[in-house]
Amino acid sequence: MYMPIKPGKVAFPIIIALGAVTGILSYILFSQAAPGPLFTSGQFFEPTPAGIPTGEIKEGQEGETATAGAGQESGANTTGGDQTAAIPPDAVTISILQGASVQGNPAYDPETAQASIGRTVVWKNDDSVPHTATSGKLFDSSIINPGESYSIAAEEIGAGEHEYICTLHPYMKGTIVIK
Question: Which regions are flagged for Low complexity bias (predicted)?
Fold first, then answer.
């Protein structure tokens, strides 16, 4: 005697298995295309510690944030704890904004910065992933890790309007105007 197999008894396990395979393949493919690291510091994300400046504009400093100090070499990345003391007080600071690595988000604050020849220009990474500030052969910060900064004398960049990008996230674009 012929007993037909009910479609639900076969179809349900097949649908579950195909869903699992599709989910695993999607995770693998999308993790390869992610713009930044999926995990930092082992397997867990560590938020930016409290007290690190986020690039806010202080009163009377239109488009600039005073966050740098003396004794810093041009073109050097600064590392370590509180970098507020390491950036010259007259520096033009460009903040790499939180979430800048996501395409479509604002990347730099200000997007177009201005500095005179005698000033220092500083890029401060306020994001949770590494970035760069690169303008062809004029300047290249290499990797600026979260909480770190990169500075260069405006005279080393030279007068004019210079576009720059993050080489890790090329859709992040900004401009520095040196007068």
Answer: 63-76
Domain positions in the chain: 77-178
As to burial, measured by CB atoms within 10 angstroms (0-12 exposed, 13-18 middle, 19+ buried), residue 35 is middle
Architecture of domain 77-178: Sandwich (2.60)
pLDDT band at 88 (very low <50, low <70, confident <90, very high): confident
Vertex 56, ends 104 and 62: CA angle to 5°?
100
Name the burial class of residue 17, with classes exposed (0-12), middle (13-18) and buried (19+) by CB atoms within 10 angstroms of its CB.
exposed
What global pTM score does this model have? 0.54
DSSP 8-state assignment for residue 72: P
The tokens of 153 are what?
A: 């004398």
Cβ atoms 93, 78 nearer than 8 A: no
Angle at 70 between CA 68 and CA 72, to 5 degrees: 80
pLDDT digits (tens, 9 = 90+) for 142-179: 999 999 999 999 999 999 999 999 999 999 999 999 99
